[in-house]
Amino acid sequence: MSAALDIGNLQAWYGESHVLHGISLSVQPGEVVALLGRNGAGRTTLLRAIMGLTGRRTGSIRINGVEAIGLPTHRIAHLGVGYCPEERGIFASLSTEENLLLPPVLAASKGVAAGMSVDEIYAMFPNLLERRHSQGTRLSGGEQQMLAVARILRTGARLLLLDEISEGLAPVIVQALARMIVTLKEKGYTIVMVEQNFRFAAPLADRFYVIEHGQIADTIAAADLEARMPVLTELLGV
Amino acid sequence: MEILGVPLQALMSQLLLGLVNGSFYAMLSLGLAVIFGLLNVINFSHGALYMVGAFLAYIGVTQFGLNYWMMLVLAPLAVGLLGIVIERTMLRWLYKLDHLYGLLLTFGLTLLLEGVFRSFYGVSGQTLDVPEQLAGATNLGFMILPNYRAWVVAASITVCLGTWFVIEKTRLGAYLRAGTENPKLVEAFGVNVPMMVMLTYGFGVALAGLAGVLAAPVINVTPLMGSNLIIVVFAVVVIGGMGSILGSILTGLGLGVIEGLTRVFYPEGSEVVVFVVMVIVLLLRPAGLFGKEK
Question: CB A93 to CB B194 under 8 A?
Fold first, then answer.
């Protein structure tokens, strides 16, 4: 069985500035992986590079066994990837429901399974049902975050790239998001999440990659987390 | 019967003329607004493509024995295809640059298209007959309504409202609106945005081509007819607010009517009234009547 995501010696640039300096990592289907690191270390760029949203990229990005490094962004999504950007990307000119229904359902292929139905999503996020006719950007920060994640669950993508979903939200919302990740993991989704909030990621992830200066500085399995805390504290400054 | 010293008949016929002009303003500014929204290109060649639409209708009817109704479909299709070629081969390379480059390129295309038609047809202008089904006029009692002009207004309002409906109320329109806000994210969801951009440009200029066909029987078809109109249309877009769909339709029709009324009450001002309105609007609402402040 091929890895859900297999990255080899990935280098990426924004214009002239070289941001990722040879990243290699592998995520198996059903795993939850967290990317830790300081601001500007290259974690968000890594997710964007997977989606083809940076400038030049070299190296290898295999998604469910298919090489994606040369593909245009819209083809990459069809390999079974759902992307939730850091800024959430809720569209102001669309209602909540239009935002939810915007990403097209992906055609059946290796990394794509039947997505959640709209009813299932509304059952998971009742607030969105209540506010489905509101303009997307009128929702609260927490609701917008839920919408940003919910809309990629409908498409059938099994690999989710979640960028700082807990950022700037009230503790009660962060807890709800943590429960959501647990539910998604039980449903067999593969998740790669960038997290600043270590305490959010710690109980959720199977593995942690620490990224520094566009490289992987350390890899820590969940079982070793306790023992490695001193190193982590130093690397992250948490 | 007279209103403010003007015979009702004259007032109504100028109002109708204003509505006809307003129909062309609306269709052209609608296309410009859609294109600017998604492509960030100020399509200066819009007027020239309107001219091409009118000439294609003239050529099809006079030289190929096709009728007006066929050209009403064929000419916009041909202009749309020409637009797709322009987008694929030229505009595509400019998206990452400043707006100014798109404006310059499309301005150059305007000169090119006008030059080509001028070398074949000169500047004096051609006329196209009104199709026989729409010839004549209907006496409404208070005014004589030329059938063709009524058709122009009805057809363009239908097309404009249809476009508005598709953009604001359908799934396809949701892609377009979202793509206008954040094309990269829409692409990351798996939508083929480059193709959508190409088709949007094709559709926008096809609207200009359609306006050209509608205009051909009521105006002099000359290579410069687009340049004469496009400046007013840009003023309409600025007044309505860049990028607003409904705004450009309403502003187009409204300004046509204002122009018509000015021609009745103060004929000397009819050429500049649109620009006076533009100045006032820009002073009071810099983002335009329907535009959102950024």
Answer: no
Chain B CB within 8 Å of residue A148 CB? no
Residue B1 pLDDT more than 80?
no
Task: State how far residue B180 is from chain A, nearest Cα, in angstroms.
Answer: 9
Q: Percent helix, strand and coil across chain B, each rounded to 5? A: 75, 5, 20
Backbone angles phi, psi at A39, to 5 degrees: -60, 135
Cα torsion A20, A26, A30, A31: sign: negative
Question: pLDDT digits over B142-159, tens only?
Answer: 778 888 999 999 999 999
Q: What is the number of helices (H) and of strands (E) in chain A?
A: 9, 10
pLDDT of A1 strictly over 70 = no
B195: Cα within 13 Å, side-chain hemisphere? 10
Rounded to whole angstroms, the Cα distance separating A203 from A95 reads 34
Instruction: Sort strands A159-163 and A81-84 into parallel, antiparallel or unpaired.
Output: parallel
Calpha distance A127→A146 (Å, rounded): 9
- Determine the average pLDDT of the residues in B179-198: 93
Query: Which pairing describes strands A32-36 and A190-194: parallel, antiparallel, or unpaired?
Result: parallel
Question: Measured between beta carbons, which residues in chain A are less than 8 angstroms from residue B190?
Answer: 74-75, 77-78, 103-104, 106, 155
| Yes or no, beta carbons of B178 and A102 under 8 Å apart | yes
Q: Match 């999504």 to its residue by tokens.
A: A77
Nearest neighbour of A94 by CB, restricted to B177, B184, B187: B177
Indicate whether A84 pLDDT > 60: yes
B41-91 pLDDT, tens digit each: 889 999 999 999 999 999 998 889 889 999 999 999 999 999 999 999 999
Tokens at B184, concatenated = 């990269």
Amino acid at A196: Q
Strand (E) or helix (H) holding A68: none
Q: Which helix (H) or strand (E) holds B78?
A: helix B68-89
